[in-house]
Write a structure and sequence with these properties.
The protein has one domain. Helices cover 67% and strands 0% of the residues. The protein is built from 7 helices and no strands. The chain has helices at 16-39, 46-75, 77-80, 84-97, 103-116, 126-134, 139-144. The longest helix has 30 residues, at 46-75.
Amino acid sequence: MALVATQPVQAACIDEPVRMAARLHEFEIMMQSIMLRCSKVGVAMQDHFGQLEAAQRARFDEATGLLKHYFTDKLGVQVAHKGSLDLLSTIIANKYGGGNTNLVGCRQFDFVLTKASIKAAGKIDMLSVIATGLVARPTLEERFCPAEKP
């Protein structure tokens, strides 16, 4: 007699702080990839990307630190230090590196960079809003958390 699992697989295997860190990390890499692609069609986004990096460096560094901690907790110190975050970053870069590139899209993403550079004013955190909108389910969650089965 075979045992059949009666409970669905949980899709939420990472907590919200790690999910947001994964979104921010993926957003940063996504924008790097888009910036490089767009430079080939004549849209120079480097200045706006530099402004984003300068304005949000602390947030991106905090996200990277949280992801390093996640991999250490999830996989153990020995595995985590063998490039888990680097592997994730490479997977993300490959995901966005070959996207559709055109002038209209590049100008839209350049505008997104300027909005994401705005530090949290009052109750609105533009970086988190934009990252959540563009990265609904981060690659980290897609790769390490099985989707819930219908």
